[in-house]
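Board notes, transcribed. Complex of a protein with zinc ion.
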Amino acid sequence: METKPSDRKRSLLMVAVTAGGLGLLLAQWLLTSYTAVEVIPYSQFEQLVAQGAVTEVTVGQDTIQGKLKDKLPNGKTAFVTTRVDPALAKELEAKGIAVTGVSSGGALTTLLSWVLPALLLYGIWILMANRMGGREGLGGLMSIGKSRAKIYVEQDIKVTFADVAGVDEAKFELQEVVSFLKDPSSYGRLGAHVPKGILLVGPPGTGKTLLARAVAGEAGVAFFSISGSEFVEMFVGVGAARVRDLFEQARKSAPCIIFIDELDALGRSRSANALGGYDEKEQTLNQLLAELDGFDPRSGVILLAATNRPEILDPALLRAGRFDRQVLVDRPDKLGRVAILKVHVRKIKTAADVDLDKIAGLTTGFTGADLANLINEAAIAATRRNGDQVTFDDFTAAIERIVAGIEKKSRVLNNEERRRTAYHEMGHALVAASLPGVDPVQKVSIIPRGIGALGYTMQRPTEDRFLLTVSELKNRIAVLLGGRASERLIFDGDVSTGAADDLVRATEIAMEMVTKYGMDRTVGQRTYAPRPQIFMPATQDAVVSASEATGREIDLAVRQLIDEGADRAYQILERRRAELEAGVELLIAQETLTAEQFAPLRAARPAGDGKAAA
Ligand code: ADP
Ligand code: MG
Ligand code: ZN
């Protein structure tokens, strides 16, 4: 839905400019061609010369201009003609053919010299206007304060709660909103409290937008939506006007839903504004707050918003009577993932061997959007091999693709590299199988994929973990260093670059143990990590406010954790060298080993490596 006034203004302007250009052209044409000068064929010119009718001529490079003694029938006394090769002209004349020259000038020249520059200038003007006006263009320049609101309204939303899975608590909370929207008057009559604004909070891709639309779909009401990021880079006043428009339009079509996506882009804390001035965003935010305050939910309009960065929202937005209810939409757990897979798997044809439960077990940490993507990728894989059903292998291939980067079939390892990679990966796998509290190995592979990692050992936790102990973290470090340890053992210390990524991840864990979780005695139980931002990945500049001396202690502690892990991995592999060799042989032959194929190796584990592994 767009408001019209500035649109009309813009098209009017365009008409004016075009008309002006055409007018100029016409004027020039009339002046040069029609007022005084007659364009005549060369043969006629020769005739006129023969008749003695020409009084004077100016011979140009390819035109001849001249004056006539008498007026031509149309009253002109000046003429212009195009020069023609004289010999040819003679011959043609002898045959009685009229000769007209075509000069390189004429209509084309006029076009090039007038129309093109005019168009160019117009283009540059538009461009500059757009630059200056952000997205508002000319409309914005000429109608500051008027809104070209990009407010989207959808009437018949087909999405329902059945399309959203794995977020049952959020659905439960929103159910109340649905029943209110279905019958606002009776809901208010019973005195039930209706929330004004509900804020959906959660990481990207978990289904916040989907949920908001499902509420509208369930209740069968109109859905007004606008995204906070659209308010960025706008003229002062435009954003505020847009907010006003949004609420005005929504009130007219109550009961309905207003949905503000990416609220953080608009509702960023005002104190976080570096310049501190009275800027556009602040004005927009103030307008939103004002609308929220003068907003009666009993009118039948429900306000929903979504954000993945609640910590940067202006506190004023979260105050009572505004977005006073927050609904968490988190990454799904295993059961949730099964439910989401069920929703999306309806769209494809699956083979009998597709076990959604197993797939869910392999996709810890995936969001709803990731899972939807996974199913799409699996279907693509099936199509590519001309299958008529999507099989379990298609799914595992898609998971690998998503998790570890795209499989690079073209990259071929030479035999020495294959052997080394096999030892490296088997090292990871054996150490993992030997330590308690480590995610079991799902797959070992030496098929190259992505950049950097030549082979990989796929370890995915079968259950989601929230708490990890010191020994579990240390075990993880040992597993990560198992690849390098194996190379060290087999190739007599001559290690390769293949462990670079392992080292990065091991260092990350050790660093967090020391600076974030207070797990090192010397450094002590205080944190040196920046305050975590909910739902956002940790920033790389991990250490803050450590003195130089403490910094050295942290480095030492991290080094020690890593060295310890490396030694443990080495010892395990030394002890189990026979299994390592057997596994490598199998791996080189098959390129990949699944959990089942790997299991006999794990069963053969001698006692004394620690308690039973999961
Ligand atoms: P968000 O707004 O939280 O970033 P979206 O709602 O845009 O996430 O989700 C993107 C897509 O991912 C959806 O259109 C849907 O296909 C899929 N999806 C995400 N979460 C779920 C879910 N809980 N159930 C089913 N599908 C989901
Ligand atoms: Mg979204
Ligand atoms: Zn490795």
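Residues 5-35 form the longest helix (31 residues). The chain has a mean pLDDT of 77.
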